[in-house]
Design a protein that fits this description.
Blueprint (H helix, E strand, L loop, with lengths): L1 H10 L10 H19 L1 H8 L11 H21 L23 H24 L8 H29 L6 H10 L6 H23 L1 H10 L2 H4 L3 H25 L11 E2 L3 H8 L5 H5 L15 H4 L4 H23 L9 E2 L14 H14 L9 H32 L1 H13 L3 H11 L12
Antiparallel strand pairs: 1-2
Length: 455
């Protein structure tokens, strides 16, 4: 395997082909921008079309929810009509030789039983977890509560249709259903894969839906003419817009995990370390470790870049531009995934966009953004202790993201030879990865030289 990767590096100056084309994310981005433009200018559109109701921008939570449709429809259209992802062998589908309707009805019933039981268990877990019934999570619970009805109804024709064309309809959901029904042999490893995928969708899906309204409302309701002369407010607006792009496209990725789009979750991260590193960065665990719990809080008595650079307009504009660039890289890394974004999953290999320069552009840009925006080493009370603590704990947060990156690499290296090729290619050609790899090799102690016998 190592020999094959070395040969690939030697003969190619380009990374392996990406499983997601740039057009997917860009089409979704265009759809999202059109919806934001419509929402911001709704009063003018309402007057033009003589619509009833108030004349104000559409900044409510359901407008934020509707924005996903304007992202997902063009992305799905591009995937099917241009990239023709439904024809890829990785879908596990053979469209040219469908089975007769009802031939595998036992398989279908078992799979639907597995899916419905999964959703019932997830619903119970939502009810048991208190944090889902406070604050921003209430919106997510309301949305998911209404969504479960069409999910249950539509799952029957969807699974029946899909089972006709799947090469092996006994997928992860079937194995869980078989375990529950006890009528056929099932593979426990497949059951584990099923639950890893659905726990990821349930946990992160609810979180992403919960944070949709806040950022969207800020972007739609802000009057740019009032802030255009203030570099701090312009910077906050543009970084806010980029974070909205990240959240909107990312939420689509968690919800549209459909096999005909080749966007299904092929496996969830099987490593406990990967789960620990990821969950430490999100509520409720992140609230305890990175937020109000103060365990790793790095924002005690800080003022931020706008305060420390105040009085120097040119430097404020430059710094605002730097933060926008860093946030833009972060959003670009999500847009590049198209409909396949999600944490802790393997859904194909991405090698274009910012992933051509480094394996973890989102983590790198996010952590640099925190340093540049918070400036934890500058504190308002003049305490050297607070400055040192803040700096140390932000370094700890950086270390958590480095840990996350390594566990994700371990997962993908074990799953796909294409990722192994990409990983090796980055070591040799990546704009940021190559010098870091060379430095690591220089610092790594060399073992004793072992004499080789003459041939």
């Amino acid at each position: 395997m190592a020999l094959a990767m070395s040969a690939y590096q030697a003969k190619s100056s380009n990374p392996p082909a990406s499983d997601v084309s740039s057009g997917v994310g860009l089409s979704g981005l265009l759809g999202l921008f059109l919806w934001i433009f419509f929402c911001r200018n709704y009063p003018a559109f309402a007057d033009m079309l003589n619509l009833p109701g108030p004349r104000e921008p559409l900044s409510g939570p359901y407008a934020a929810l509707a924005a996903m449709a304007f992202s997902v429809i063009p992305m799905v259209a591009w995937s099917l009509l241009v990239d023709k992802v439904h024809r890829r062998p990785s879908t596990g589908i053979n469209w040219d030789n469908p089975r007769p309707w009802g031939k595998d009805i036992d398989v279908t019933v078992t799979k639907i039983a597995g899916l419905w039981a999964t959703w019932a268990i997830i619903g119970c877990l939502y009810c048991l977890a208190r944090w889902y019934w406070n604050g921003q999570y209430l919106f997510a619970m309301n949305v998911l509560g209404y969504a479960i009805i069409p999910m249950v109804v539509l799952s029957v024709p969807y699974v029946m249709w899909l089972d006709r064309v799947m090469v092996n309809p006994r997928d992860h959901a079937w194995h869980f259903g078989a375990m529950l029904m006890g009528r056929e042999a099932y593979d426990p490893e497949e059951v584990k894969k099923h639950w890893r995928a659905w726990i990821i969708k349930a946990f992160f899906g609810a979180f992403m839906i919960s944070i949709l309204p806040g950022g969207f409302s800020f972007i739609v309701s802000t009057d740019f003419s009032e802030i255009s002369n203030d570099p701090v407010r312009v910077g906050l607006f543009l970084t806010g817009l980029l974070f909205v792009i990240d959240v909107q496209i990312g939420t689509v990725g968690y919800l549209v995990t459909m096999r005909p789009l080749d966007a299904h979750i092929r496996s969830g991260n099987p490593f406990l370390a990967g789960w620990l590193a990821a969950l430490m960065c999100y509520p409720p665990f992140g609230w305890v470790i990175l937020g109000n719990g103060d365990v790793l809080s790095y924002e005690h008595n800080v003022a931020g870049w706008g305060v420390w650079l105040s009085g120097n307009t040119a430097l404020l504009w430059i710094w605002a531009g730097l933060l926008v660039v860093l946030t833009g890289i972060y959003a670009w890394a999500t847009v590049a995934f198209g409909i396949r974004f999600s944490n802790l999953t393997y859904r194909g290999v991405l090698t274009n966009g910012p992933y051509r320069f480094t394996r973890h552009p989102a983590y790198l840009s996010k952590n640099l953004f925190w340093w540049c925006s918070v400036m934890p080493f500058l504190v308002t009370n003049g305490s050297a202790t607070d400055a040192i603590r803040n700096t140390f704990f932000l370094l700890c947060v950086n270390a958590i993201y480095f840990w996350r990156a390594k566990t994700e690499e371990a997962h993908l290296l074990a799953e796909d030879p294409k990722y192994r090729e990409y990983h090796a290619w980055m070591d040799q050609h990546g704009l940021l990865t190559r010098p870091l790899t060379a430095l690591k090799r220089r610092l790594r102690p060399r073992g004793p030289v072992v004499a080789q016998p003459a041939e």
